[in-house]
Amino acid sequence: MRKISYREAIRETLWEAMEADERVFTLGQDIEYGGVYGITRGFYDRFGPNRVINTTLAETAITGAAMGAALEGLRPIAEIQFADFITPAMDQIVNMIGKYHYRTHIPVPLVIRTPAGAIVTAHGSTGPLHSQSPEAWFAHAPGLKIVVPSNAFDAKGLLFTAIDDPNPVLFFEQKRLYNDKMDVPGGRYGIPFGQLRVARTGLDLTVVTYGSMVPVVLNAVQQIAAHGIETEVLDLRTLVPLDRQGIIKSVQKTGKVLIVHEANRTCGFGAEVAALISEYAFEYLDAPIRRLTPPDIPVPSARHLAEAYLPNVNDVIQAIQQLNRY
Length: 326
Prior knowledge:
The chain is an alpha/beta fold. The protein is built from eleven helices and 16 strands.
């Protein structure tokens, strides 16, 4: 099996979906030349201006046009250049796109793709305006499915499922993972929404995570296994729908829970996971639920500050060790 990157897996899925179904098209700012991260490079030459639509810098227009096209029987895939800039389209997404199928029973088959999270290089980070992880904002809004893939295999399978879904899906791509490679089969396959992945099995404690933090956590638990701590790692894959039973089953087995995500702490999605466990698995807990997240501040621009801001392998190891002492 060939190895391809997270970026290539998304690109391949979009290409194959557009080849297979002429109703599928994509629209967004600068996608004609490939977009900021090169996902749609070459698409304009292959599929033409009617299916690769360059838009103005207006997120409300992008999402509104996508909704109109979906209602006319097409299958639009809208790209918001950075997740931070999805906020101008909140009304369209939350009040129109998310609620329309509830109000009318008319399908709204559209996908909104957007790169989320921070990248840190020797020159600094992507900063406070190009690094946010806003997935929890939309998990609170009924009618929207929320997907946050952590690897190339899942990115392809989950994106195919998103494109086939009869109603709206927000697909949060993880910028930090775009170049990560793994074995990915050719051809079309889907991964069902609402089914988490047990990325590692263990009996001592459970780490619940998703997106960019999954590789960080897996690195940490591999190191800490040498000290006799066997950690189960749950990759949520989708936040809505959430695999509630998968989480509860793991907690019942281990009795200790650490929740890790890149989004800010207060009202981050980890709070919902903690509430779920407290409500339905409290009697199985042997220790308080612990969260490991960035602090409640904007993403710093300076490299050393951004590195301190984001949870890293040592942070995860320390949190697991502290939790394991109970």
